[in-house]
From TrEMBL, chain A:
GO cellular component: plasma membrane
Molecular-function GO terms, alphabetical: ABC-type amino acid transporter activity; ATP binding; ATP hydrolysis activity
PANTHER family: AMINO ACID IMPORT ATP-BINDING PROTEIN, GLUTAMATE_ASPARTATE IMPORT ATP-BINDING PROTEIN GLTL
Stated name of the protein: Amino acid ABC transporter ATP-binding protein
Topology term for the membrane: Peripheral membrane protein
Family: Belongs to the ABC transporter superfamily.
UniProtKB/TrEMBL annotation, chain B:
Similarity remark: Belongs to the binding-protein-dependent transport system permease family. HisMQ subfamily.
Function: Part of the binding-protein-dependent transport system for glutamine; probably responsible for the translocation of the substrate across the membrane.
Protein's membrane topology: Multi-pass membrane protein
Domain ABC transmembrane type-1 as annotated: residue spans: 19-207
GO biological process, alphabetically ordered: amino acid transport
Compartments in which it is found: Cell inner membrane; Cell membrane
Pfam families, A to Z: BPD_transp_1
Gene Ontology CC terms, in alphabetical order: ATP-binding cassette (ABC) transporter complex
UniProt xrefs under PROSITE patterns: ABC_TM1 (PS50928)
Official protein name in the record: Putative glutamine transport system permease protein GlnP
Transmembrane segments: 20-43, 55-76, 186-206
GO molecular function: transmembrane transporter activity
């Protein structure tokens, strides 16, 4: 589904991704872990064209993602993204946020879009907040609206960039719960996360990224419980038992 | 005092005619300037160099010329290259052109103040730039820009008095003519100033109202 083939990416002279090879299969949950600055966000952003890359290729179901192509918008619509800081549209209600994409990008029928958006908000547990503006919602609620907004596009895959890192601890659970449910429905997801426990539960594949390279990969069992690589071991120790 | 009032009464119809023209010139110029200014701002914030660079030059160029000179230029020079505009048209055009450039900077600042996360969110649901501008960026920029925009309207209204020098019979021009025929400078120009204030003060209050009601919500 999402295939990385020797992806290289630099900002100016700084090489951030140094040859990434990976594949996320349809219905699979991939968790991307790694220290700060290792290039996780950059890799994710290359997938839906928010960043361009210089060498190699990323393809989605066979379509090569090229941030400079005129067609990049249709790729974005197929693979949506959930951000660390939610990025809801503050001037629109929760419901309008969810409807925005299907209504104006996919140009679907307003009534159907509205019904579906209400269903989605219900699914993330926010049916009663549909007319609230983002400013009046808690971080956890905003992130759940953002997930509903991403789902409303009926994407082939969803990218999550540290979806719980900006949340107060007591709100992390409600967001992970929604994501867990999506994993259960075999939504294809690529998740950057520091929630190791959560990754253990849902990941079909864990990729450990360090210094722009995938240092270790495998099942959650292999990478998270029984890492081979010294750097993975160190990283896990640090995130599991912060000093 | 009663003398002032009785004289005022006889001057007022004449001045009100001018006032009406001032309002008309201001509204037309504002309408044009807003649209053109928005266009400049969209050009300037686009990623197309072919739009960015010429727009930047043009805006800086116009901003660097005194409005009065611009008006003279349009009114007196345009006919020499075969473009015949009435004084009224020249006045509206000059005001609109100058203020489109002032406004474009205001609009640009508003557009650039929008959080980058908003743009990324819009892109990640597949929005192209025009749609993103219309649905995400401009509605939010509008709130930011409203106070300086209001200020600009008042400046434009006051600048409109300059069209009197190219013989548009606006409030200022009517005042000047009245004063030179009656020699009653005191009454006439007091009235003229008062009539301008009748426009600018309510405008100011209205803008402040809008600011507070728009500032919150959402
Ligand atoms: N727009 C940019 N311009 C220049 N350098 C950038 C840019 N974005 C990221 N970088 C650099 O690229 C490297 C990787 O950044 P990235 O955000 O992908 O890391 P990350 O793994 O997501 O880190 P974090 O866990 O802190 O989010 C960092 O060194 C960062 O400074
Ligand atoms: Mg990151």
């Amino acid at each position: 589904m999402i295939v990385f083939n020797n992806v290289h990416k630099s900002f100016g002279t700084i090489e951030v991704l140094k040859g990434i090879d990976a594949e996320i299969r349809k219905g699979e949950v991939g968790c991307l872990i790694g220290p700060s600055g290792s290039g996780k966000s950059t890799l994710l952003r290359c997938v839906n064209g928010l960043e361009s890359y210089q060498r190699g290729s990323i393809s989605i179901d066979g379509t090569v993602v090229d941030a400079t192509s005129r067609d990049i918008h249709s790729i974005c619509a197929r693979v949506t993204m959930v951000f660390q800081r939610f990025n809801l549209f503050p001037h629109r209600t929760a419901l309008e946020n969810v409807m925005e994409g299907p209504l104006y990008v996919l140009k679907e029928n307003r009534k159907e879009v509205c019904e579906r958006a209400m269903e989605l908000l219900d699914r993330v547990g926010l049916a009663e907040k549909m007319h609230a503006f983002p400013g009046s919602l808690s971080g956890g609620q905003q992130q759940r609206v953002a997930i509903a907004r991403a789902l409303a596009m009926r994407p082939e895959a969803i990218l999550f960039d540290e979806p719980t890192s900006a949340l107060d601890p007591e709100m992390v659970g409600e967001v992970l719960q929604v994501m867990r449910a999506l994993a259960g429905e075999h939504m294809t997801m690529l998740i950057v996360t520091h929630e190791i426990q959560f990754a253990r539960e849902v990941a079909d594949q864990v990729l450990f990224l360090d210094g722009g390279k995938i240092v270790e990969r495998g099942s959650a069992q292999e990478v998270l419980r029984d890492p081979k690589h010294g750097r993975t071991q160190d990283f896990l120790k640090r995130v599991m038992h912060p000093a | 005092m009663s003398e002032f009032l009785s004289r005022s009464e006889s001057y007022l119809p004449f001045l009100l005619q001018g006032l009406w023209l001032t309002v008309l010139v201001t509204l037309l110029a504002l309408c044009l300037a807003t649209n053109i200014g928005l266009l400049w701002a969209l050009f300037r914030t686009s990623s197309v160099n072919l739009l960015v660079v010429p727009t930047r030059f043009f805006v800086e160029f116009v901003r660097g010329i005194p409005l009065l000179v611009l008006l003279f230029y349009i009114y007196f020079v345009a006919p020499e290259i075969g473009v015949n505009l009435t004084a009224f048209q020249s006045g509206v055009l000059g005001l609109a052109l100058a203020h489109s450039c002032y406004l474009s900077e205001t609009f640009r600042a508003g557009i650039e103040a929008i959080d980058k996360g908003q743009i990324e969110a819009a892109r990640s649901i597949g929005m192209r730039r025009p749609l993103m501008m219309r649905r995400v960026v401009l509605p939010q920029a509008f709130r930011i820009v409203l106070p300086p925009y209001g200020n600009n309207i008042i400046l434009l209204l006051k600048d409109s008095s300059l069209v009197s020098v190219i013989s548009v019979t606006d409030l200022t021009m009517q005042g000047k003519m009245l004063a030179s025929s009656t020699f009653d400078n005191m009454t006439v120009f007091t009235l003229v100033a008062f009539l301008y204030l009748c426009l600018t003060i309510p405008l100011n209050l209205l803008m402040r109202r809008l600011e507070t009601t728009m500032g919150v919500g959402g």
